[in-house]
Amino acid sequence: MSEKEPIPAGTSEDPALDSAAMADPNLETMPSLEDLLRQAELRAEEHHDAWLRAKAEIENVRRRGAEEADKARKYAAEKFASDLLAVKDSLEAALASTGSTSVESLTSGVEVTLKQLAGVFERHQVVEVSPQGEKFDPNQHQAIGMIAAEGEPNTVANVLQKGYLLNGRVLRPAMVMVIKPAE
């Protein structure tokens, strides 16, 4: 903002004001319209600059957020995949040694590998669903067919393929055969 400039004595239309201005040089006078306009333009320029900076900052935040979300989607399975590498290594080692090992040794190796896989699933909240004898739930089970068997109708009689949940959400429904209602 610029300093207000006093009106020189003898330039106003009122001689009383001119004499008062000469008598008291500290008397404040009204700024000119040009001064007021300059001040208003400076304030408008400052506000416009602040608005442009805020707009640019919002765009930067939006862009960074989109980049972070993209990276999160892209690398979401990284830890899970790296945990599975040990399981793959064990399976490859088992296949490489098939000629020189006994069936018992191979079975033992496969059991250890299965335990590794179960550990990976547990660390990543992948839960096995084997609903043998449970009430059929279409949200977690996929009925392949119905069979006549002893037991309560609409109960799972056979599990053809286990299902899996990931953090409580169905990853793959269990494929089941359901007991048929009595005729």
List strands and helices in order, with pairings.
Layout: H1 15-23, H2 33-74, H3 78-96, H4 103-123, E1 126-129, E2 141-147, E3 156-161, E4 163-166, E5 169-172, E6 174-179
Describe this structure in words.
The protein has 183 residues and is an alpha+beta fold. It has three domains: 43 residues; 47 residues; 59 residues, Head domain of nucleotide exchange factor GrpE (Nucleotide Exchange Factor Grpe, Chain A, domain 2, Roll), CATH 2.30.22. The chain is built from four helices and six strands. A three-stranded antiparallel sheet has the order 1-4-5. It has a three-stranded mixed sheet with strand order 2-6-3, with no helix packed on it. It is elongated and about 105 Å long. The termini are far apart. The model has no long low-confidence stretch (mean pLDDT 85).
Straight-line distance between termini = 95 Å
Overall number of structural domains:
3
Radius of gyration: 41 Å
Mean pLDDT over the residues = 85
Per CATH, the superfamily of the largest domain is Head domain of nucleotide exchange factor GrpE
Helicity range: 40-55%
For the record, what CATH class of the largest domain applies?
A: Mainly Beta
- Residue stretches low in confidence (pLDDT < 50, at least 5 long) are none
Strand order of the largest sheet: 1-4-5
How many β-strand runs?
A: 6
Beta-strand level of the residues, as a percent range?
Answer: 15-25%
Structure summary:
With 183 residues, this protein is of the alpha+beta class. The protein is 50% helix and 17% strand.
